[in-house]
Design a protein that fits this description.
heterodimer; A: 970 residues; alpha+beta; Rossmann fold; 8-stranded mixed sheet; 27 helices; B: 137 residues; mainly alpha; ER-derived vesicles protein ERV14 (chain B); CPII coat sec24 protein (chain A)
Chain lengths: 970, 137
């Protein structure tokens, strides 16, 4: 697809949206954006090619700040100039001499100074920094990154783009390093330069009437409201200086200065953090600081970041969190690799908001532990019959070499269990293993002091042999019963000296020993107030054991397979408090190849996942802000310290923030630090810094709200409330929060004020919030229904509290595509990977009798076939003669030798892989007149429809409106 | 000194014990909030005290019932009912995983108890003296 950037009228910018496979057009002056190609310049827009007063954001001062030779910088600029004259004219300003008046607000600006180099070039005079202007931080999309750490690293960033990395459905901030590359990158950079200008003015609030503007699924892919930091707040003009929303995002991108302003807006303030998100190929890796020079504030222990201020000629730095003045460590300006003075401004921690430090020994309680895995495999009759044992051992066997083990230190142990425990001992050097049976499950002991937990690399061949045999060994096992509790205790005994990960696979309700559970599923109490009791742990064992595990740095992953009641709610407690993850395959049957494939795929990904071990996480924030409550999979060890024995990738945490006192600074900083041991036995600290401006203006608070983060927070709060109170309370609470927000908006932001209004007003940036809340209220985890088995509910709640926004949003608001009428290019490989068809609003009004539709929520895919589907379509996609022959249910789609089949297949595969996380969704074929349960399930994903007692989107808006007008009438 | 005087003397001593106990609870909760103690230690230290405290209070109230001290029974009955309800609902155990979410509520509860025990302490003292005076007269 050719870049439309060049053909745009002035004042517009085009931004490639990878998920929609099309450009988003942004009117730079107002921030307004649209999908349609803008026509002629609109009235009142600046017409000249070069916007007036273009101070070349970040331009002239960079060379000086960075103190590169003029020629060197010119060379970089030259490259830009050739393509983009607009940008070139402004950046070609020669590096001013020291005495020259610097453009921009100089007064009060920080002084930038590199001791080593400065003397040579500027005679020792500290160089006053010209206004970094909007170039500071993430609010500075205008600054291309052509300087920076060793130039090459940044260049690399600059070049990589979505051509390499497949699109993933997360909105990206308008950062130049993420803009599409190829021929359009320079033009776009220029456009963004113009866009950056808009950053200096206040947030513009656009009010939308919800009643007249139906939800547009593409809105969800928009980046969050821009972060507009005040000038001079950031020492680095790099676009990476502020955190990418996929790592850390706030519900408000402008923090109110007082708690009364915050409570007036009724927008909850919280952070949504995914500190360890997976990095796909082609994306920027997290930069690593290897020289163990870790500059931290003496008082608040914050790490140095791009938002500190250098004072006293660069010898001291002022902490941006507590304002303490600290000394710059002596080796900070020393390049240890080359043993010569280094460039301070090239240091990764001053240019990147997400950075990892190699931690010296002060950060260790003990030498870094090796990664250790204990696999608990249920080999009871049910497990063997379902094929779980065979699939699990085969997957384990196939993925042995993918288990992270770079230094050959990883340890592995396999324990099988039914009503007894079967240990496998592998003597060093032996090629065979011995099975040791412990049938005393009341008082679990290890049958051997050593050789049970073996080195993966050394015992590889015997492990392979063992895994190949396990299924045969237990094939005839007719024992029914499940001693999961004792098995966990045994694994704990094995791991407690070093910590690690327990991966428990269980096919039935634990019935023996510690942690035995009873079947408490009672259809009569479903849908009643007592239902939330079923979502809590039935036995205290799962909480106390989780705490023991957390102390011993052991994390538990649960893979659950039962067809009958398994008490997922109790079992999910263990992963919940030990920062593991629960995976649930209800009624798993390996005879269905789809089941086996899904489990094998996800289990394989879990095995191959590089995990963080022995981690603790703490979030620090500027004075006046306090982290008040924490949601997610971890154990809160002290008021603000989260203990995570093993952090899996792509797990999200939500943290509510309180404003305790009036904030006086122009911007605030949230810093998340995760001290951890990598699975390659290196102690590291991952630091994520997010700077946000403050505001005293209520309309800016509304205009900066991030609906995705808000929906994520609501999901966490709703689940918490359903456990402490009732499910109904959780729904009412969420609904009430939305009503309060709308009332606050109506009363303060619309002309109608407090009176009744025919409108339902909300700001443009939050207009998808009502539909997301509706989606949440209709989600299986929260929904009002007497038919949802507690296991399914509990699993869904586990997902709601741990999925990162990118996966959570489709999970509560499924995406809906029409495949039969998709544009010709959809499903083909385009410039940015497979082109997706445009998503439709999720309502059955769009279903057509002759059509083929795809509904997906990231966990399940439904391929809906209309009853009048033409035989040719059925033949093309399913290789079947007619609609009548087609069978509904789980399917693997054949790839046929026709373009339509290949496009459909490509779209489905793209859906399966475009998001982060290990999930490999099942594909169900749903016939319009097929089995009612499956049909209803698929239709329940279309959340804008009315279903049973649940309102349609229109009804939901009406009830919102009544509430809003009712409350406002006081 | 008759048995009634002994009963009130016993109540005074037990109340004093309760007072120390609640103050200890308050100190521990404050320590938790200022990070001097971690939730696991807190819970393992406090949980063994909960049932004995409730038990002692129940025993004391039973003694009042046996000796027919109606005013004392009326004063203590609400707390007994509260404690019994809590134990039946299994809410008497401090849960380290939830403690940060519930610490405010626990603190409030402990403060109210402290006030109650303090008032009761003086009331027992008054009753004790009243009984002694009645015996002497």
């Amino acid at each position: 697809m050719a870049s439309p950037a060049q053909q745009l009228p002035p004042g517009w910018a085009a931004q490639w949206d990878p998920n929609n496979q099309r450009y988003l057009f942004i009117e730079t002056a107002s921030g307004h954006s649209q999908w349609e190609v803008p026509g002629a310049p609109q009235g009142g827009q600046p017409v000249p090619d070069q916007p007036p007063a273009s101070p070349a954001p970040g331009g002239p001062h960079n060379p000086r700040r960075r103190q590169y030779a003029a020629g060197q910088t010119q060379a970089y600029y030259g490259g830009e100039t050739a393509v983009d004259p607009t940008y070139g004219t402004s950046t070609l300003v020669p590096p001013p001499t020291t005495g020259a008046p610097a453009p921009g607000p100089v007064a009060g600006g920080p002084q930038f100074f590199t001791p080593g180099l400065d003397n040579q070039q500027y005679g020792g005079a500290p160089v006053p920094a010209p206004g970094t202007g909007i170039s500071g931080g993430g609010g500075a999309p205008g600054v291309p990154s052509y300087y920076g750490p060793g130039a090459d690293q940044q260049q690399q960033v600059h070049q990589h783009d979505y051509i390499n990395g497949p699109a993933y459905g997360q909105p990206q901030p308008p950062q130049p390093s993420f803009t599409p590359g190829g021929g359009s990158v320079d033009a776009l950079t220029g456009q963004f330069g113009a866009l950056g200008l808009a950053g200096q003015k206040a947030f513009q609030l656009y009010t939308t009437n919800l009643l007249t503007s139906p939800p547009e699924p593409r809105e969800l892919l928009r980046p969050p409201p821009e972060i507009r930091l005040p000038p001079n707040s950031c020492v680095s003009p790099a676009a990476t200086a502020n955190a990418d929303p996929s790592y850390q995002r706030s519900t408000l991108n402008a923090i109110p200065t007082t708690s009364s302003l915050l409570s007036k807006s009724k927008v909850p303030l919280a952070l949504v953090i995914t500190p360890y998100r997976s990095v796909k190929e082609g994306e920027e890796q997290v930069p690593l600081v290897t020289d163990t020079v870790i500059a931290r504030c003496r008082r608040c222990r914050a790490y140095i970041n791009p938002y500190v201020q250098f004072i006293d000629g660069g010898n001291r730095w002022r902490c941006c969190i507590c304002n303490m003045s600290n000394e710059v460590p002596q080796l900070f300006d020393w390049d240890q690799a080359r043993n010569q003075p280094g460039d301070r401004w090239a240091r990764a921690e001053l240019n990147h908001s997400v950075v990892e430090f190699v931690a010296p020994s002060e950060y260790m309680v003990r030498p870094p532990q090796p990664a250790a895995y204990v696999f608990l495999i249920d080999v009871s009759h049910t497990a063997v019959q379902s094929g779980m044992v065979a699939t699990a051992t085969r997957t384990l066997l196939e993925n042995l070499e993918r288990i992270p083990d770079e230094e050959d230190r990883t340890k592995v142990s396999i324990i099988c269990y039914d009503t007894s425990l079967y240990f496998f001992s592998i003597a060093p050097g032996a090629t065979d293993s011995t099975m040791l049976v412990v049938s005393d499950i009341e008082d679990v002991f290890l049958p051997k002091p050593s050789d049970l937990l073996v080195n993966l690399a050394e015992a590889r061949s015997s492990l392979e042999g063992l895994l190949g045999r396990v299924h045969d060994m237990f094939q005839e096992n007719s024992i029914i019963g499940n001693a999961l509790g004792p098995a966990l205790q045994a694994a704990f005994k094995l791991l407690s000296p070093i910590g690690g990960k327990i991966v428990a696979l269980s096919s039935s309700l634990p019935t023996l020993g510690a942690g035995a559970l009873k079947n408490r599923e009672d259809p009569k109490i479903l849908g009643t107030a007592k239902e939330s009791g079923l979502l809590q742990a039935a036995s205290p064992f799962y909480k106390t054991f989780a705490i023991d595990c957390s102390r011993a740095q052991i994390s538990v992953d649960m893979f659950l397979f039962s067809a009958a009641y398994q008490d997922v709610a109790s079992l999910a407690c263990l992963p919940h408090y030990t920062s593991g993850q629960t995976y649930y395959y209800p009624a798993f049957n390996a005879a269905r190849s789809e089941d086996a494939q899904k489990f094998a795929r996800e289990f394989g990904e879990v095995l191959a996942m590089p995990i963080m071990l022995e981690a603790v996480m703490r979030v620090r924030a500027s004075r006046g802000l306090r982290m008040s409550s924490f949601h997610g999979n971890f154990f809160v060890r002290s008021t603000d310290l989260l203990a995570m024995p093993a952090v899996p990738q792509d797990q999200s945490y939500a943290i509510e923030v309180q404003i305790e006192e009036t904030i006086t600074s122009p911007f605030v900083v949230f810093q998340t630090a995760v001290l951890h041991t990598t699975c390659y036995s290196e102690r590291r600290i991952r630091v994520i810094t997010l700077a946000l401006p403050t505001t005293t203006n209520l309309s800016e608070v509304f205009a900066s709200a991030d609906q995705i983060a808000l929906a994520t927070l609501f999901a966490n709060k709703a689940v918490e409330r359903s456990l402490t109170h009732k499910l109904e309370d959780a729904r009412d609470f969420t609904f009430q929060k939305l009503v309060e927000l709308l009332v606050a908006y109506k009363n303060s932001m619309t002309s109608g004020g407090a009176g009744a209004s025919a409108q339902l007003a909300i700001s443009e940036n939050m207009k998808m919030l009502p539909v997301l809340v509706l989606g949440l209220l209709k989600n299986v985890g929260i929904r009002q229904s007497a038919q949802i088995p507690p296991d399914i509910r509990a699993y869904s709640q586990a997902l709601l509290t741990s999925l990162p926004s990118q996966l959570l949003i489709p999970y509560i608001y499924p995406t809906f595509y029409a495949l039969h009428s998709m544009p010709a290019e959809a499903g083909t490989v385009g410039e940015h990977g497979v082109i997706m068809p445009p998503p439709l609003p999720s309502t059955s009004e769009r279903l057509e009798r002759h059509g083929l539709f795809l509904i997906e929520d990231g966990q399940t895919l439904f391929l809906w076939v209309g009853r009048d589907a033409v035989p040719q379509l059925v033949l093309d996609v399913f290789n079947l003669p007619s609609y009548e022959v087609l069978r509904g249910g789980k399917t693997t789609l054949p790839v046929l030798d026709n373009p339509f089949s290949q496009r459909v297949y490509a779209v489905i595969e793209k859906v399966r892989e475009m998001r982060r996380g290990v999930y490999y969704p099942h594909l169900y074929v749903v016939k319009e007149d097929g089995e009612p349960p499956l049909r209803l399930w698929a239709l329940s994903a279309l959340i804008q429809d009315r279903a049973d007692v649940l309102p349609s989107y229109q009804q939901f808006l009406q009830s919102l409106k009544e509430k809003v007008n009712g409350v406002g009438g006081y | 000194m008759g048995p009634l005087a002994w009963l009130y003397l016993f109540s005074i001593l037990v109340s004093a014990g309760f007072l120390f106990c609640t103050v200890y609870f308050i100190i521990m909760f404050s320590d938790l909030e200022s990070d001097y103690v971690n939730p696991i230690d807190l819970c393992s230290r406090l949980n063994p005290l909960v049932v004995p405290e409730h038990g002692a209070h129940a025993v004391m109230t039973t003694l009042f019932v046996l000796s027919g001290q109606w005013v004392a029974i009326l004063l203590n009955a609400p707390l007994v009912a509260f404690n019994v309800n809590k134990i039946l609902k299994k809410g008497h155990v401090y849960d380290p995983t939830e403690i940060f979410r519930t610490v405010e509520r626990h603190k409030m509860e402990v403060y109210i108890k402290l006030a109650f025990y303090l008032v009761m302490f003086f009331w027992y003292l008054y009753s004790f003296i009243a009984v002694l005076v009645a015996e002497g007269g």
